[in-house]
């Protein structure tokens, strides 16, 4: 019985436990239910949040796109407005200058356009700046900003090249008249620069000083008035024969003055570190505008002249301005052509100012490119040959032309040139003492332009003076001098003929991130010297390189674009006409390599699908800092269907060879395209005429 009673109690206790457990289970189930409903709510909220996020991202993207468009428009508007302001201001300024006695030194205060091209531009502020008349007369010059060295500021732009554009005309004639009696023929002294001008450009006569001095904008009153001036590609009514013809007055070469560097402005951004390239700049000590290249200008006296002061930048300023006024130019140009074939002032409704170039004189790059194409179709390639003196260096002895006889009277006889061929102009040996004399590298130094590039009609490019020591050819590995060479001499009739009538002309655009070395590469290609302290490219620049490859003369019009983002829209414009594209990256910068795809996208956007692409990794001399293996470059090139090469602009490795290969590829591509064109046309049914015809 006792056992039964115990059992009974135990059973009851168990039952109680079971009941408690069941209750606990119910509670837990209830909690679970609560939790799952909470979870459901949370997940639905999550879902909503995700949708909202997606919405916001889309809107953000839209806003970004709009911002970009707005930026582009502001950029274009800013360019136009600044030009218009300059034009308005230039007339009174010119009068002031005439009234003032003595040479007018470039004033750093008045040099830069307000805030132009600064990274942290407040666009509204800029526009309002442009909208309100400045207190000081603005001049057609951009001064380089002071360049305090700060290696930490890698994103800040390097010194912006100084730009000066004016349109001399009215006062060029007296200058030209003075010229005959005012040539000193001294090395480094440009021919045809009247003493008055020389006075104003101060240190011009001393080539060494020229090398050691910073580039300064110099306002030469005598070179500013040119009511009818038009840009090179836009010279209606100008007989082609006038350009480069030996019947025309000789080119006048004007070396820019070398002046003191502008006072340092602490508000301006420090110069960006160039990464591995720093070593080259460090050699120079604290960078100052002295490293900016000295410059030269050669002006054809008739009938339209453009003065561009920026060594090594060729037509950069002109093109930049053209691109800035892209939107308005076509109509205005058209109107101007109808109303006033000699110039575009009327189209703008502006009185011709003494030194102002109306904005309408700035054709779009497209117009320019088309003009060039038209010209080449019409009259061969004469106008595209810059007369670049590369071919003069075959024997290491530049041959002077009529234009530079006063510079280097002993060098050679004046070659007989084809009537449309503007002679190449070589600078005297003394023009760049640094390279030739073996001056220490620490001499401030930008490669002094000793080459005068001439752009004949209608590309009446300013002629630049830059020295071209004969370094490249011998150093160029892998390039057979028989296969790839520059025409030897203007005195050589074959060379002259080739230059006068190249077999091929191609537009090649160099693109790539800022600092990868595009300008350095091109500088080396043209001047056979590595340019230290180069400034960041502004807008675009172009030169023509003549190459003799496989017994064919190639004129490569090489466009150097600015890697800085603010100029990408300009680059995209150029890419539309590109036949060849050099996608350059820096082997020490993974980022620049990654951006190759971005540039390729730009190329595709521009519709230049048939362009021949060369992928070029620069700075291969910086092996220690290398971030992009050669193999990666090769693979990418394979993927893109591009040719590939690595080079070093600093050492001069692989400079000419890739260009030679590119020329060959361009030729092949052109032949291929021509072939397909023929096929298409031959498929056309013959024209049917009416029964009466
Ligand atoms: N070590 C080394 N430095 C180089 C080489 N090529 C160029 N640099 C340096 O790289 C820097 C940029 O060169 P740039 O030629 O101005 O570069 P870029 O691509 O034209 O730049 P943007 O004009 O801004 O587009 C300069 O400081 C050059 O001295 C090279 O082959 N080796």
Describe the model.
- This protein is of the alpha/beta class and 693 residues long.
- 38% of the residues lie in helices and 10% in strands.
- It is built from 19 helices and 14 strands.
- The chain has helices at 2-99, 123-131, 172-181, 195-200, 207-212, 278-282, 316-324, 326-339, 345-348, 365-379, 433-436, 472-475, 493-500, 518-527, 568-575, 590-594, 596-605, 630-640, 656-683; strands at residues 141-142, 163-166, 252-255, 296-299, 307-308, 425-426, 451-452, 484-485, 504-512, 540-549, 552-561, 580-586, 612-618, 643-646.
- A 7-stranded mixed sheet has the order 8-10-11-9-12-13-14, with helices on both faces.
- Helix 18 (630-640) links the parallel strand 13 (612-618) and strand 14 (643-646).
- Helix 1 runs parallel beside helix 2.
- The longest helix is centred in the first third of the chain and has 98 residues, at 2-99.
- The chain starts with a helix and ends in a 10-residue tail after the last helix.
- The structure holds guanosine-5'-triphosphate (GTP).
- Guanosine-5'-triphosphate binds at residues 274, 276-277, 280-281, 512, 514-520, 532, 534, 536-537, 562-564, 618-619, 621-622, 648-650.
- One of its GO terms (molecular function) is GTPase activity.
- Residues 259-269 have a biased composition (Pro residues).
- Residues 17-223, 252-410, 428-448, 461-490 are annotated as: Disordered.
């Amino acid at each position: 019985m006792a056992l039964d009673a115990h059992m009974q109690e135990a059973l009851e206790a168990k039952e109680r436990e079971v009941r408690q457990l069941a209750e606990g289970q119910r509670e837990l189930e209830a909690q679970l239910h609560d939790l799952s409903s909470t979870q459901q709510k949370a997940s639905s909220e999550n879902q909503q949040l995700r949708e909202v996020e997606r919405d916001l991202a889309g809107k953000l993207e839209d806003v970004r796109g709009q911002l970009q468009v707005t930026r582009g428009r502001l950029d274009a508007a800013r360019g136009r407005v600044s030009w218009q302001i300059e034009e308005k201001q230039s007339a009174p300024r010119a009068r002031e200058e005439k009234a003032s006695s003595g040479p007018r030194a470039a004033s750093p205060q008045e040099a830069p356009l307000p805030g132009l091209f600064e990274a942290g531009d407040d666009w509204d502020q800029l526009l309002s700046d442009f909208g309100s008349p400045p207190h000081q007369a603005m001049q057609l010059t951009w001064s380089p900003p002071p360049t305090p060295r700060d290696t930490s500021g890698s994103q800040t732009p390097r010194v912006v090249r100084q730009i000066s554009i004016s349109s001399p005309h009215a006062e060029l004639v007296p200058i030209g008249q003075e010229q005959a009696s005012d040539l000193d023929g001294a090395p480094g002294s440009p021919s045809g620069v009247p003493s008055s001008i020389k006075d104003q450009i101060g240190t011009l006569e001393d080539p060494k000083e020229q090398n050691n001095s910073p580039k300064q904008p110099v306002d030469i009153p005598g070179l500013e008035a040119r009511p009818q001036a038009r840009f090179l590609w836009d010279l209606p009514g100008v007989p082609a024969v006038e350009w480069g013809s030996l019947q025309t007055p000789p080119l006048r070469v004007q070396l820019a003055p070398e002046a003191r560097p502008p006072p340092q402005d602490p508000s301006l951004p420090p110069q960006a570190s160039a990464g591995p390239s720093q070593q080259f700049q460090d050699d120079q000590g604290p960078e100052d505008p002295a490293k900016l290249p000295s410059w030269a200008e050669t002006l054809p006296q008739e009938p339209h002249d453009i003065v561009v002061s920026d060594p090594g930048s060729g037509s950069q300023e002109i093109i930049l301005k053209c691109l800035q006024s892209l939107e308005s130019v076509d109509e205005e140009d058209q109107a101007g052509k109808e109303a006033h074939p000699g110039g575009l002032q009327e189209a703008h409704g502006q009185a011709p100012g003494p030194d102002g170039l109306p904005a309408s004189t700035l054709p779009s790059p497209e117009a320019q490119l088309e003009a060039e194409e038209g010209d080449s179709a019409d009259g061969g390639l004469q106008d595209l040959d810059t007369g670049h003196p590369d071919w003069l260096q075959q024997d290491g002895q530049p041959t002077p032309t009529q234009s530079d006889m006063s510079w280097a009277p002993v060098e050679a006889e004046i070659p007989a040139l084809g009537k449309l061929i503007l002679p190449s102009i070589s600078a005297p040996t003394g023009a760049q003492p640094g390279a030739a004399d073996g001056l220490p590298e620490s001499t401030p130094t930008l490669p002094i332009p000793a080459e005068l590039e001439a752009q004949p009609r209608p590309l009446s490019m300013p002629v630049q003076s830059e020295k071209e020591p004969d370094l490249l050819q011998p150093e160029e590995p892998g390039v057979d001098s028989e296969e790839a060479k520059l025409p030897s001499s203007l005195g050589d009739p074959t060379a002259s003929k080739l230059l006068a009538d190249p077999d091929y002309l191609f537009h090649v655009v160099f693109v790539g991130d800022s600092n990868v070395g595009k300008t350095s590469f091109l500088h080396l290609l043209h001047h056979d010297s590595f340019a230290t302290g180069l400034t960041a490219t502004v807008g675009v620049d172009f030169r023509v390189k003549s190459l003799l490859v496989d017994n064919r003369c190639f004129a490569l019009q090489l466009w150097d674009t600015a890697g800085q983002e603010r100029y990408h829209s300009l680059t995209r414009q150029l890419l539309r006409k590109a036949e060849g594209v050099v996608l350059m990256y820096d082997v020490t910068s993974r980022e620049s390599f990654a951006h190759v795809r971005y540039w390729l996208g730009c190329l595709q956007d521009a519709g230049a699908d048939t362009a021949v692409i060369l992928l070029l990794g620069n700075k291969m001399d910086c092996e220690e800092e290398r971030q992009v293996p050669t193999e990666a470059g090769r693979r990418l090139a394979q993927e893109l269907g591009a040719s590939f090469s690595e080079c070093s602009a600093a050492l001069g490795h692989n400079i000419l060879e890739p260009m030679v290969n590119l020329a060959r590829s361009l030729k092949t591509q052109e032949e291929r395209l021509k072939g397909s064109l023929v096929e298409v046309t031959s498929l056309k049914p013959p024209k049917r005429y009416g029964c009466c015809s």
